[in-house]
Design a protein that fits this description.
Layout: H1 13-39, H2 42-67, H3 83-112, H4 121-152, H5 157-163, H6 167-196, H7 200-229, H8 235-246, E1 251-263, E2 266-275, H9 281-298, E3 302-309, H10 315-325
């Protein structure tokens, strides 16, 4: 069940994915802003804001990768892994504030404001085509890494995105996918404006880009919120650890099994176990040491392991387990 370790340290693939996305988005943001000012297109200006938001996002993700790699210390005994979720949450907020809000403003201004004549639409088409080509490079790298990580966990791409505790590659993949869709929306809006002479289509395209960014921001913020609060580890991992504990000769029952994701590929485990009553104190100590070593060897994600001997028939503990899970874990 041990997963391959992702290369999230500086120079690793996650860093490469984020840096590539940052450089691409910065270049695209400049091109879109210039094209938006030349053409007066609301959709193009919305796309410029989209790329600016993405650039800020990559900068925040680089901060997340750097700060979350710091080792544990006295003030943070479980490490700084959750820094990645904090900065990734700020990245989601950045997408909404600097991207979606501005797109809504430009869209409603075009729909309800004074008519503005479209100028040099060819410039917009060229910029959109170049942006699509550059975004495709970044998107391909994000898809490649995400698929590799999913394969390492023996999951489909959808399952990996649903259960992954690494928000960096997921954020880049989502925002690059949204960027490609946004470019197509902007192209349609500008094209319809040119064909009809009405800026209504341009304004609607800008609003649609805003809605797209708001949806991406919501999905990413929901994921990082759950991880920041303290989400249970991957259910597959929890089930495998429970099975391994039940197979241990000295363990008669797994009374409670608590896990929390403390960072990417980092899990805290607390197992309350009913041991064989025939074990002496020294036997129990040796069993706990051996069980912990075996778990660390088999499950690389388990960075902190606490084993607590408890009686399975303790009424207070039983009530807590039933309140949390609706059933007892041993059987």
């Amino acid at each position: 069940m041990a997963r391959e370790t992702k290369e999230d340290k500086p120079g690793g693939e996650s860093t490469l994915t984020v840096v590539l996305a940052l450089v691409v988005n910065l270049a695209i943001a400049i091109m879109k802003a210039i094209a938006g000012l030349i053409t007066g297109s609301a959709a193009m200006l919305a796309e410029a804001a989209h790329s600016v938001a993405d650039t800020f996002t990559e900068a925040l993700l680089l901060t997340a990768l750097r700060t979350s790699a710091r080792p544990a210390d006295r003030a943070h005994p479980f490490g700084y892994g959750k820094e990645r979720y904090f900065w990734s949450l700020l990245a989601a907020v950045s997408i909404f504030v600097s991207g979606a809000v501005f797109s809504f403003y430009e869209g409603f201004s075009a729909i309800f404001g004074e008519p503005v004549e479209q100028e040099s639409p060819v410039v917009a088409y060229v910029v959109l085509a170049l942006a699509f080509a550059l975004e495709s490079i970044s998107w391909t790298q994000a898809v490649r890494q995400t698929r590799r990580d999913a394969k390492a966990e023996s999951r489909s791409l959808f399952e990996y995105l649903r259960h992954s505790d690494d928000p960096t590659s997921k954020t880049v993949l989502f925002e690059d996918s949204a960027a490609l869709v946004g470019l197509l929306i902007a192209f349609a809006g500008i094209g319809l404006h040119q064909l009809t002479g009405s800026q209504l289509a341009d304004g609607i395209a800008s609003v649609m880009i805003g809605l797209l960014l708001a949806a991406v921001a919501y999905l990413l913020s929901r994921t990082n919120r759950g991880l920041l609060i303290g989400r249970q580890a991957d259910p597959v991992l929890v089930k495998a650890v429970g099975m391994r504990l039940r197979e241990t000769p000295e363990v008669e029952a797994v009374v409670d099994l608590l896990t929390m994701t403390t960072g990417t590929d980092s899990v805290l485990l607390c197992a309350r176990l009913d041991f064989d009553d025939k074990l002496g104190a020294a036997d129990l100590e040796r069993a706990c040491v051996r069980i912990e070593a075996d778990l660390r060897s088999e499950f690389a994600e388990l960075t902190e392991i606490f084993l607590e001997p408890v009686p399975r028939n303790d009424p207070d503990l039983r009530a807590k387990v039933l309140a949390r899970y609706g059933r007892e874990l041993h059987g």
